Amino acid sequence: MSLEPIIQQQQETLQRWHQQSQRDAEDLAESLIESFQVHVAAELDGFVWDFADDFVTMITAEWGDRYAGAVDAHWQKTLGRLQSQLEAYVGDETLEYAQTANELDRRSLYFCVDKNTFKKALNEAKPGVLGMLLAPSMDNERWDDWSAEQNQKILQSLKKALSSIQPKIARAISKTLDDAYDEYAQGLALLKPGALVEA
Asked: What does the pLDDT average to over 124-137?
């Protein structure tokens, strides 16, 4: 059978996915931020300001992993399936979009949120000099209440920071999915429609 109907079917599926993925970018950004905030809230247990820089490094890495994983999962549901289908027909000539897409994903990640975003949020939540001097020691009975209050301030500051750049995150996700679409579509265009494949 000719490869032409296979390519046409993939192009139609790809186009539908592309249209939907652009609408999904905002939802994906919102979902990422919400799940990330839940994770940070859990990690704040036992937080002390002396290790704030280490905490920032940790949550920056966590955001990166969550972002990359969510965007990758979004395109794998369709592009991964299309690629597997194509492999059955063209074997070694199948499209290699995954590596390029992952590189695009990482670039957009650092465009979205870097370490300074989280560092600034924590600095804005940190008590002033007097507040730190008056802070209870960890063995003081007031420590738990004081610590819980600090954690809430940190969460609110992070929420404010991420909410302010949520449209930027959504645009970056949209751009990443655009690029993944372009890579795959260009790969399809390079295949020879008249080639014969096994039915």
From this structure: 87
Per domain, the residue ranges of the chain are: 4-190
CA-CA distance, 79 to 97, in Å (whole number)?
A: 9
Smallest CA-to-CA distance from 173 within 73, 56, 39, 80 is with 73
Contact 27, 170 (CB under 8 A): no
Q: For residue 98, what pLDDT band results from cuts at 50, 70 and 90?
A: very low
pTM here?
0.77
Please say whether the beta carbons of 37 and 14 come within 8 A: no
Give the residue carrying structure tokens 């390519």: 7
Instruction: Give 54-85 as a 3 state SS string.
Output: HHHHHHHHHHHHHHHHHHHHHHHHHHHHHHHH
Q: How far is CA 131 from the centre of its chain?
A: 36
